[in-house]
Amino acid sequence: MRNQYFTIPKNLHLAALITGCFCIQLATAQAQTQTENLQKGVEIYNALREYEDGLVASTLTAEEIADVKNRMTKGIVLLDKVIKEGNAEEIRAARYFKNNFRYEYLFVLGMKGQNAAAYEICKEIVESNFSESALA
């Protein structure tokens, strides 16, 4: 006869296995270094530049503009992590690419004739450059 006080249900084993796998995956996902974040940000920027090479002002759609903005946002999120936690060289590179992302979005807005929105991005770039020069 089996001891019913020390028997572990099969579902509990499965739940523990799934929880363990999830924790391992979460730990490795958050262990990205600032160098990796910078590298991924630059890769997103380079892919954005290639994507923009195929854009034509006369056929530019709102979806393409939104796609450029989404790519910019993804890249800037990574670069902001580097700016907050990276070393001096990584921070300089991250700021450079962050402003380049903004410039690319500004350029696409200008292609579509959305000059007021483009001007707002231009002001962000100028303000960023002044605040960064104070930090250097």
Please count the beta strands (DSSP E, at least 2 residues each): 0
Low-confidence stretches: none
Please summarize the sheet with the most strands. Answer: none
The percent of residues in helical segments reads over 70%
Structure characterization notes:
The relative contact order is 0.10. Helix 2 (34-53) runs antiparallel to helix 3. The protein has 136 residues and is an all-alpha fold. Helix content is 80%, strand content 0%. The chain is built from 5 helices and no strands. The model has no long low-confidence stretch (mean pLDDT 83). The chain has helices at 10-29, 34-53, 62-85, 88-111, 115-135. The protein starts with 9 loop residues before the first helix and ends with a helix.
Using brief descriptors, characterize the structure shown.
single chain, mainly alpha, 5 helices, 136 residues
